[in-house]
Fold:
Amino acid sequence: MATYTAKDITVLEGLEPVRKRPGMYIGGVSAAGLHHLVWEVLDNSIDEAMNGHASTIVVTLHEDGSSITIADDGRGIPVDKHPKTKKSAIEVIFTTLHAGGKFESGSYKTSGGLHGVGASVVNALSKELVATVRRDGAEWEMRFKQGQPVGAVRKVGPARGSGTAVFFRPDSTIFPKIEFDPETIRLRLEVSSYLHQGVRITFEDQTRSEKHVFQHSEGLADYLKTILKERTATPVHEAAFTHSRDGEDGGVRLDVALQWTQSTDEHVRSYVNGIPTGSGGTHENGFRAGLGKAVRNFIDTHNLSPKGVTLTAEDIREGLVAVLSVFLAEPQFQGQTKDRLNNAEAMALVDSAVRPALEHWLNTNISVAESIVARIILAARAREASRVAQQEVTRKTAMSSRLTLPGKLSDCSTANREESEIFIVEGDSAGGSAKQGRDRTRQAILPLRGKVLNTESASLAKVLENKELSDLVTALGCGLGKNFDLARLRYGKIIILADADSDGHHIATLLLTFIYRHMPVLITHGHVYLAQPPLYRIDIAKESYWALDEAHKARILRLHGNGRSHPEITRFKGLGEMMPKVLWETTMNPRTRRLLKVDIADQILTDRVINELMGKDPSARFRFIMDRAEEAEELDV
Ligand code: 0RA
Structure:
């Protein structure tokens, strides 16, 4: 950059208009307007840092809570005299509206702040302002009252280094209430430190005797991590996608970081020139468009489109957490709170920056991309299931206002939810065994008819039509979707008891998908379990033993085999063949059984979920869920 001297400052007009109509310049004179003064001064220091001249900014909220100093270690505002006006640059910057070197083409950099106009606006609205500059081996000072200089620039004394410090106290004849909110300032500084990677921003809060230092070498990637933590969202993939453009190539200066998570909502935080755009706008729309196209292109290129369901834009963004920061020369804001970007060109600029970068990233991180696509397909399938469930519930409510428990539920007698369990059992005959074998104080049995359940592969719709699942919802008592209320859950444990054959697998998958979509809290709070019926029956002489797995089988053979007679090993045929007593001993008795706690997090994280969700092989799906389920209880068997 060419050397900057006072002659580069463009002189436009005086400060009277600012004091007459402050709202025109800072939006108003309430708390938001008051804090706007801080952001204006801060932006000038951030500009200096973003242009590579400053690395540290210190914001001090003084003890009185009504005055602030913002200091940086940049070049320092020039103090030499303008040849024509005979005024120092510092005076021009603070007393002239729309004056500022950054306004000039050539030296202008799109960054925060309104082209350096902020300094004079803040000065105009301040009872007192002191600008202190260190440069050329000396410290200089210039003082103002209500925007007017109080004397000329004066040399305070020798000094090392360079930098600018601006102290100001807002004018009480302009602002009805002057009380800076330290939390508002702290938050803004923290966000700025993420948006402006590497800059060290210190907040000295003398009102609360607190000091905060914000510095983030990874910028938005660090911000994204913080947001994920705040929202306790579990990512679907390890590393975030990040992309930055400096805007030198005619495009827009832009930074973006994003990651898909398991949460069912979408969270996009956007900024324009460091200003939060809570109501979105054209830049966010461009971002969403680019993201959608990138993902769709990837899905099409790799032939990953799911069967039987169409992906919507919302499916693609379900669970997405993103931060978008763009820098524009002349941002136009609209809306009640002026927090929506209105510049039409921003849409295409952001779209065309995000799409190719994201598409390239997806194509170079295939297994990550596949997990994301799996997440998206899950969203689409869940949405479809949700729609059907909603219809079902509406219909049910219309039909009967009286809430009765399903007739085929054999309820338990305890009133203590924590100790109660409901077994959802596939088929009437297994249901009968379970009913006889159970501990009726604590264990309820709800048989579901397999015949109806396993007619179709993508059959949640069918299932709901046949009321099997709405019976389940009624039995659980906690409602679903928006009406879900964990407090109304009637059982501590919900245990799915299904055969280890493909029908059983299929039903368990449907049940789990249903619960995951409509009552995910049941899973996240650890209420959902899979029972583990034995895999083998071992007949030795006249005795029958049941083995849960290979290791257990080997143990039984060792203990009871003994060469007395040839053991006969048969694979488990189905719950129906078990005597109630055996079912109790092997599968239901809390002292001897094994349960698997269902953990959906694991399910989504793996690549295999792709096949699983595309519904090619229902038995593989169930095995998969079993594989990934977490061992909850492993008591002596
Ligand atoms: C005009 C010209 C130069 C720097 C600045 C303004 C400047 C303004 C602020 C406001 C807060 N901190 C600041 N730091 C610098 C360039 C001076 C040069 O070329 O040396």
About this structure: Residues 366-399 form the longest helix (34 residues). The two ends are 78 Å apart (CA to CA).
